[in-house]
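G.,

No rush on this.
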Amino acid sequence: MEGKLMRAVQYDRYGGGAAALKNVVVPIPTPCKGEVLLKLEATALNPIDWKIQKGMLRPFLPTKFPHVPATDVAGEVVKVGAEVINFKLGDKVIAALTGGGGLAEYAVAKTDLTIHRPPQVSAVEGASFPVAGLTAHGALTQSVGLKLDGTGARKNILITAASGGVGQFAVQLAKLGNAHVTATCGSRNMDLVRSLGADEVLDYETLEGAALRSPSGKKYDAVIHCASPVPWSVFEPNLSTDGKVVDLSPGASAMWTFVVKKLTLSKKQLVMFINSPKAENLQFLVELVKQGKLKTVIDSTFSLSGAGAAWTKSIDGHATGKIIVEP
């Protein structure tokens, strides 16, 4: 592949949204030690991708410009770097890329964040998991302490934006953990969220939904908050005595609440969760798909040349499930 070129989508400055994305032709990258080169079959977009473009992780990401965004991919191994023993040419895999590179025909992935993709899992399904699936998994197992085999104490859990990328997985995983799930979404997605297993579904545009009140009067042991910022005053009356809110996109107000609750030793806590991908957890999710216990809702698919439209749809924030680009 050395010296050959590929199509990619990149931006060369902060800001600009979809209009700043450029379709380019660049050299195919070369895998280093412990890396594999993938011919990409599917790439999933996540809100963090356009938030990085906006400069929300400046100066850490991007590490340099121009930058090819997106990290969640599925593809085929076409070249292996030195000391790679677990993968060979032709292997179908799922990977979490480090820093980006997914909006392209080829990308380099580290083997410690790459797993084999079984034939029962499509490339589109596989690309959906690294950020969204692992965030849902980590928030529930690490922050809430839910046992996904259903052996732990039953918890009442609220999941906001339950028809979105993270929310769809959080509902299904929480039900595997024997939780009672209340979920919020728009009216058009209420039947979908029920089909994922939610026990109660609230339309966030109604007064009851905006107040996050359980229709059965339950108090929440935990909230997996996947939506835009909500004041602590809305969460607090709905929490059990030692309930917690796991905020997946905390703003300044949430960070202040986090500090105050810690300093005052409040039993009700706000927890900020940051996804730290691990191959074994990704493998766990893929096994659930193989067993028919977890499914992926796909909102839409786009070609690489149509990545700008996919980017705009992600920024809009009303996708039902995952947005996929197929190079």
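When you get to it, here's the other one too:
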Amino acid sequence: MVKVEPYRKRNKAIICFNCSGFYHSARTCHMKPRCIKCNGEHATRDCIIIEKIAEPTCINCVEKGHLVVWKGRIALPIITKPTVRQTRKTYAQAAAGQKKKKRSKKRKQKN
């Protein structure tokens, strides 16, 4: 018998292991790499600091005592649900809006 469980979203933001930013992953990151040990512009795996840091400093919140990737940190953003549901356009509505803009630009150019 197979049991189906509902998907459980994470309530805290994900951390990019490339730039140490929030809300995206290293796979989709287009920013320069940032080292979590020394805040240099290189990947953490390429850092010259090999030994464990006695008093680490977070490169995002600049507090001493933890690194960016520590899950218990207070400054880790918590994802909240919006209180009001936002109405979004369907693809057809957005495409129709683009056509109207192009037509109005062409009319302005003719005048």
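The chain has one helix and no strands. The chain has a mean pLDDT of 76.

Enjoy the weekend,
O.
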